[in-house]
Write a structure and sequence with these properties.
Helix content: over 70%
Distance between the termini: 40 Å
Oligomer: single chain
Number of domains: 1
Largest sheet: none
Order of helices and strands: HHHHHHHHHHHHH
C-alpha cells in the first residue's frame, strides 16, 4: 500500500473514531436519566467486549496475553476505561452533552502540563498565551448553562468534566510509557472486559438491574451504539490509526469531536445551544492548538505569503 493510501486509511479510521466518541456524549446523556452510570457502563463494556471477542474469533487472533503486561493493562483499564467513563457519565447527569463535548477538548492542555512536569518540556510564551485562552474558553462554556439548573449542580458537572480531561491526559502519558506490543484489537478487548469487571460490583451494590425495565427501545439503541461503536469500534480504529500514522497527526482529529457532539446534541436531544457556548468552544480549540504549537507553522506560512 502506498504512503498516500496508508495516510488516507489512517485518516478514515481516526475520523470514524472521533465521530463515534463525539456522539457518545449524546447517547450517554439520553440514558443516564433512566439508569445510574454504573449500570450503563456495565452494559456498555459487556456489549463492547462481546463484540470485540466475536471479531477476534472471526479474524483468528490469538487471545494469549503475556503475564508481564497484566499490570500495565490493569492500570490503563482503570484510568482510561473505568475512571474516565464513570466521571463522564456522572457529569452528564447535570450538564448538557454539547457542553461536555467542548470541555473534553481541553484535555491536551493538561497533557502539556504533565509533559512539562515529568518530561521537562519547555513552556513558551506562545503556549502560555494559548493556555490562558483555553481557560477563558472553558469559563465561557461553563457560564452558558447558568439558570437551567442549580448553580451547585452545574459546577459539580463541569468540575467532573475537567477531572475527566485531566484523567485522560494522565492516561495518554501512561499509554506511551506502558506500551503493550500487541494488536490494538486484542488490547481493546481486554480493556473493555476489565472495565466491565471493575464496574460490576458498583452496579450490584446499587441494584441497577431494577431500572432496566424502564428503558425504551430508543434507549437500548443508544446502549448498543455505546457498546459496539464507541467502546468497540472506536477504540479499535483509533489504535489502528496510531499504528499507521504519527500520533501527532492522528491527535489533530480530536478537534473535530466537539463539532460532532454539537451537531448530534441538536439533532438527537434537541438541546438549546447558546452563542456564548459556541464562542467559548471555538476559543478552547484555538487555545489548545496554540498550546500544542500546531499552528506556529501555519502562521509562519501565512506571514511568509503576505511578504
Amino acid at each position: 500500500m502506498s504512503k498516500n493510501k496508508v495516510t488516507m486509511a489512517a485518516s478514515i479510521y481516526a475520523a470514524m473514531s472521533i465521530s463515534f466518541w463525539g456522539i457518545s456524549f449524546v447517547s450517554t446523556k439520553a440514558v443516564v436519566d433512566k439508569i445510574d452510570p454504573y449500570t450503563l457502563l456495565v452494559l456498555r463494556f459487556a456489549i463492547g467486549a462481546l463484540f470485540l471477542l466475536t471479531v477476534l474469533v472471526l479474524k483468528r487472533y490469538p487471545l494469549y496475553f503475556p503475564f508481564r503486561y497484566i499490570p500495565h493493562l490493569i492500570i490503563l483499564a482503570v484510568l482510561g476505561v473505568f475512571v474516565h467513563q464513570v466521571i463522564q457519565a456522572t457529569a452528564l447527569i447535570t450538564i448538557d452533552a454539547s457542553a461536555a463535548g467542548w470541555m473534553i477538548s481541553f484535555s491536551p492542555v493538561f497533557t502539556v502540563i504533565l509533559s512539562m512536569i515529568f518530561l521537562h518540556e519547555k513552556m513558551t510564551s506562545f503556549r502560555a498565551a494559548g493556555m490562558l485562552l483555553a481557560i477563558a474558553g472553558v469559563m465561557m462554556v461553563t457560564s452558558a448553562g447558568s439558570g437551567k439548573r442549580p448553580d451547585f449542580a452545574i459546577s459539580i458537572g463541569f468540575i467532573l468534566m475537567l477531572l475527566s480531561t485531566l484523567n485522560w491526559a494522565v492516561y495518554s502519558v501512561l499509554l506511551k510509557r506502558l506500551s503493550i506490543p500487541l494488536p490494538s484489537l486484542v488490547v481493546t478487548f481486554y480493556m473493555s472486559m476489565f472495565g466491565c469487571f471493575l464496574t460490576l460490583p458498583f452496579m450490584l451494590r446499587n441494584k441497577g438491574w431494577e431500572n432496566l425495565p424502564l428503558l425504551a427501545q430508543v434507549e437500548w439503541a443508544h446502549i448498543l451504539f455505546l457498546g459496539v461503536f464507541v467502546s468497540g469500534v472506536g477504540y479499535w480504529y483509533w489504535g489502528k490509526a496510531l499504528e499507521m500514522m504519527d500520533a501527532s497527526k492522528v491527535s489533530m482529529f480530536l478537534y473535530l469531536e466537539p463539532l460532532v457532539t454539537l451537531i448530534a446534541a441538536i439533532l438527537l436531544l434537541h438541546e438549546k445551544i447558546f452563542l456564548i457556548s459556541i464562542l467559548g468552544g471555538g476559543i478552547i480549540i484555538i487555545g489548545v492548538t496554540m498550546v500544542n504549537e500546531q499552528s506556529v507553522s501555519f502562521f509562519q506560512r501565512l506571514l511568509w505569503r503576505r511578504k
